[in-house]
Amino acid sequence: MVSFKKDNCKGCGLCVDACPKQILRVAPDQINKKGHHPAECVDQEKCIACAFCAMMCPDCVITVERK
C-alpha cells in the first residue's frame, strides 16, 4: 500500500515514472496547499510494495507498507 503526504508533494512525477505497475499519476483534479498537483495511486490493489516510488521521491512524501 502506498500513501502520500499530499500537501508536501510538488508533483514532479518522478514516482510516476518509477512505478513498474504504472498505478501512480499526478492528480489532474487536485491542488495542494503549495499550489501543486500531488501524486496519487489509482489502484492500491495492484501495488506490489516495491518502494521504487519512495526511493525516487526527492521530498520524502511517500510511505509504502506491505499488506
Task: Describe the structure concisely for a colleague.
With 67 residues, this protein is of the alpha+beta class. It has two helices and four strands; from the N terminus they run βαββαβ.
Protein model, in words:
The protein has 67 residues and is of the alpha+beta class. It has one domain (2-64): Alpha-Beta Plaits, CATH 3.30.70.3270. 15% of the residues lie in helices and 18% in strands. It has 2 helices and 4 strands. It has helices at 14-18, 52-56; strands at residues 2-4, 24-26, 39-41, 62-64. The chain has a two-stranded antiparallel sheet. The protein has a two-stranded antiparallel ribbon with strand order 2-3. The relative contact order is 0.37.
Key features of this structure:
single chain, 67 residues, alpha+beta, two-stranded antiparallel ribbon, 4 strands, 15% helix, 18% strand
Rounded radius of gyration (Å): 11 Å
- Class inferred from helices and paired strands: alpha+beta
Order of helices and strands: EHEEHE
Number of discrete helical segments? 2
What fraction of residues sit in β-strands? 15-25%
Helix amount: 10-25%
> In total, how many beta strands?
4
Instruction: Compute the separation of the termini in Å.
Output: 7 Å
Walk across the major sheet and give the strand order: 1-4
- Unreliable segments (pLDDT under 50, ≥5 consecutive)? none
**What composes the largest sheet?**
2 strands, antiparallel
Mean pLDDT: 97
CATH architecture verdict:
2-Layer Sandwich
The CATH class turns out to be Alpha Beta
Quick one: overall form? globular
Number of domains: 1
Remind me, CATH topology? Alpha-Beta Plaits
